[in-house]
## 1
Amino acid sequence: MTFASTEWDLYDEHGNRKYLTPEEREAFFKAIPNALDREKRTFALMLYYSGCRISEALAVTHGRIDYGKKGVVFKTLKRRKSVFRFVPLPGHFLTKLDDVHQVEDVQKRTSGKKIWSISRTTAWRAISQVMDGAGIEGVQATPKGLRHSFVIYHQQENTPDHMIQKWLGWASRDMMEVYGRAVGKEERNFAARLWE
């Protein structure tokens, strides 16, 4: 048995779901503008669009935003050696990053300056504020819940597993088995064949 299948799950010890549903994910997105100031909005959107961890987003420098390839390069956490990964981002979000943080201007002078200068605690609070504004409560109302929902969304949209694995920075495909246990439209479709 692998670590992913035996010791990690999408439900806590009480059976509570640890991921956002598609409706909660949409509510989170819609709540961002009213819940946060401009700089924290871009931070919340980075987590939403990329599925990254809080600490990975906080470590992003201006130089790791790639306007040519239209994405961001993260230093992957929880790996023994330094591993970097590229994650594509929507063009409109890249424009917003530049508007708020002057990314392209800063890139001309230096590449090492971090985009967000907030602490991990402040970042966590910002995501919690958005969850509150969206009316999302429970164990899923966390940055990890948002990360989990990123994977589940892409699975339901039939994004190839190897792409999801790359974007999330996983060393092995074991985690895909865990996410495959989430209740989604595909699972309901399989079950519905018996109901007809």
## 2
Amino acid sequence: MAAAILVATTALARAGVCTGDGQPRHEFRLLAGYSPEAATLIGTATDRRFGMVEFSYTYRCWSWNAVSIGYTAGVIPAAFVFQPRQTVIPSHAVYGFAVMPAGFFAEFARRRRVHPVAEANGGILASTEPIPERGNNATGLNFLFNLGGGIRFAAGRGAITVGYRFLHISNAGTTDFNPGLDNNVFYLSWSFLR
């Protein structure tokens, strides 16, 4: 059994890991996204909008015919949670900065000019005040992850992607106050491929 797994793993490595197929391996991406309302799939906070700007780098390593998977790392230098009015606090925007060191980006039918993509990312978000809301043991340091997909329009060494992400922000239970925030983020991105 172990020998069969070793042989299969070696065959997959030879067939797909970092193969030179002539396609660009490096992607530098600028993304802008907005969520008009909060969802409540995992988190419980409602009535919050979210906006973001992201810079990321993807290294495409695994490829099989028309499918590829790349490793992604990125930063969100501008994340905004638009808080509603709360008792004596007026509505306002809370600024945050995020680092996302772990992510994956997959392309399907990638040899076509227009093709679908899927992605997942995770990291840490620091904000100027606790989000999604203030409370005892609320924190301005949270974790985030997103899952999504979209349609990519490729043109030479560039690409435009229109997509959707489910984005979750919470402190993952590091304190006893953890309402969590879910957002449906619609985004537009431009990529430079090398």
